[in-house]
Amino acid sequence: MSRLKHLQPPVFPVTMGALPEVEVNYLSNNIPVYLIEAGTEEIMRIEFLFKAAGQINEYIPLLSTTTNLMLSEGSLKYNSEELNRILDYYGVFLNLSAEKDSAGAVFFFLNKHIERILELSREIIFRPLFESKELDILMKKRLRWYLVSREKVQNLATDQFFESVFGKHHPYGRKVLDSDFECITSAMLMDFHLKRYTSENMAIIISGRIHKNSMMLMDRFFGDLRPCKIYIEDTENHLRGGARKKIKIEKPGRLQSAIKIGSSTINKRHPDYPGLKIVNTILGGYFGSRLMRNIREEKGYTYGISSSVSSLDLAGFKVISTEVGRENTQNAIDEIYREIKNLQTESVEKEELSVVKNYMTGELVRMFDGPFALAESFKTVWEFGLDYSYYYKLSDKIKSITPDEIRELARTYYNIEELYEIVAG
After folding, report:
1. 3-class SS letters over the chain
2. pLDDT of residue 294
3. Comparing C-alpha atoms, which of 287, 234, 276, 280 is closest to residue 261?
4. What's the CA gap between 282 and 287, in Å, rounded?
5. Count of CB atoms situated within 10 Å of the CB of 240
6. Residue 39 phi/psi, 5° resolution?
7. Which of 189, 212, 266, 404 lies 20 to 30 Å from 64 when distance is taken between CA atoms?
8. If you average pLDDT over residues 90-98, what whole number do you get?
9. Which residues pair with 308 in a beta bridge?
C-alpha cells in the first residue's frame, strides 16, 4: 500500500473539446441576438454592445466613458437613487464599460425577473437624462481619481506609451488632461448618445440558463427601436507613432521606475496572431516566463514583470511592463532586450516549449469554463468579425508550432529598432 503512494498519477493531455453552438436570432428591426445556452443555475447574462460608442469615436477626451457611466445616473422614468434601489431589489449586477473600440452594458440576474430587467435595461440604455447635477458630481469624483493616479509612475508610463505608439492626436493615444474634466457638458453627452447608441450599431449577447420567452420579450422591448443614421466624425486622425523611441518622464522622489517597452502590431484578424501570442507567452506572458525567471528570480530587480499582446480594431499592440528600483532601471532594460534577442537567435528547448504549450492550452480551456466565460470569449472574437473558429486555430497553432517558427516570429514582430521605450520615475 505504501509503495502505491509513491506512484505518479497518469498525465493526460488537455484538449479544448467542442464549443457549444451560438444561436443567432434577429429582432424585428434586425438587431442581432446571440444565444449561448449553458450552465445549471437559473441565472442569465445579457450584454448590450455598441460598436461605434467607444473611445475611438469621441471628439474630445472622456466623452465615451462619461456617456457610458452616466447611463445609470437617472432616466426619463427613474432618478439615480430609484434605479439603484430597483437594481438592488432584484439582485441585478450591472457593469457599464466603454473601451477603446466599443461600449455597452452587462446585466446579470435571475432569469425569472427577465421582463422587469429588460424594462429597466431599456430605460437605462436608451432613455438616460444626463442631468447636470449628476454629471457635476461624477466629474468631480473622476478628477479626484485622476489626480491620485497621476502620482503613480506606472500610470504615467502607460499614458505615454499609448501616445508614443498611436500618436497624440489619435483617440487610441490621446492623453487625458486635468482641464478635460471641465469640458464635458450634458448636451455633449446627449448628442454622443443619440448618434452612437443606435440600433444599427447594436448587438445583444445572452448566455446562461436562458428564459424560454427571451426572444419574444427582447423583441417587445427592443424590436421597435428605429434606425438612425450612424454619425461618422470627419477627422484626419491617423495611427501615427511618435518619432522619439525613448522617453523618460521625471517624477522626483520616486524610489521606483516604471518601464514600458513595446510597439503597435497585428491584431486578431492576422493569420500570424496565434503564433505571436505563443511567442509573447514564452517571453513574459506567464509566471514561468523568461522575463520573470531572469529579471525577478535571478536578478531580483522587480517583484513582477509581464508582456502582453492585445488586439484593437485598427491595430494591435505589444508591451512589456515592470517596475524596478531606480538604481536598476537600465540593467532591467538591458536584460529585456537580451531576452528578446535570445528568442530571435536561439531555438526554444523542447522542455520549455512543452511547458508553455500545456500552460496555454489550460488557459484556453479556462476561457470557456461556464456560460459567462463562453459569452465573453465569443464577444472578444465577434468584435473582429470572427467566431469560435479563431480558438480552434489558436489551439492548433499551440500544438504544432516549432522552434523555427518561434524564432522567425520573434524576428518579424519584435524588431528592437521599432520598439518604444518609456521610463517614468
Report:
1. CHHHHCCCCCCCCCCCCCCCCCEEEECCCCCEEEEEECCCCCEEEEEEEECCCCHHHCCCCCHHHHHHHHHHCEECCCEHHHHHHHHHHCCCEEEEEECCCCEEEEEEEEHHHHHHHHHHHHHHHHCECCCHHHHHHHHHHHHHHHHHHCCCHHHHHHHHHHHHHHCCCCCCCCCCCHHHHHCCCHHHHHHHHHHHCCHHHEEEEEEECCCCCHHHHHHHHHCCCCCCCCCCCCCCCCCCCCCCCEEEECCCCCCEEEEEEEEEECCCCCCCHHHHHHHHHHHHCCCCCHHHHHHHHHCCCCCCEEEEEEECCCCEEEEEEEEEEHHHHHHHHHHHHHHHHHHHHCCCCHHHHHHHHHHHHHHHHHCCCCHHHHHHHHHHHHCCCCCCHHHHHHHHHHHHCCHHHHHHHHHHHCCHHHCEEEEEC
2. 96
3. 280
4. 10
5. 13
6. 95, 165
7. 266
8. 96
9. 319
pTM for the complete prediction?
Answer: 0.90
Return the pLDDT at 20.
80
Q: List domains and CATH numbers for the chain.
A: 23-222 (3.30.830.10), 246-424 (3.30.830.10)
Which of these, 309, 305, 323, 321, lies nearest to 264 by C-alpha position?
309
What is residue 401's predicted lDDT score, i.e. its pLDDT? Answer: 97
342: CB partners within 8 A, 6+ apart: 290
- Dihedral Cα 74, 75, 81, 87, nearest 10 deg: -120
pLDDT at 234 over 90: no
Nearest CA among 45, 43, 44, 66 for reference residue 55: 66
Look-up of cell digits 428564459: 211
| Spatial distance between the Cα atoms of 142 and 149, rounded to a whole number of angstroms | 10
Residue 415 one-letter amino acid:
N
Mean pLDDT of the chain: 92
CA angle, corner 228, sides to 65 and 221, nearest 5? Answer: 80
User: What does residue 48 show for φ and ψ, rounded to 5 degrees?
Assistant: -105, 120
Report the 10 Å Cβ neighbour count for 217. Answer: 16
Residues 6+ apart with CB under 8 A from 304: 292, 296, 322
Q: In this structure, are strands 43-50 and 103-110 parallel, antiparallel, or unpaired?
A: antiparallel
Average pLDDT score over residue span 189-218: 95
Residue position matching grid coordinates 518561434: 406
CA distances in angstroms from 294 to 130, 300, 326, 335, 337, listed in the order given: 51, 8, 18, 8, 12
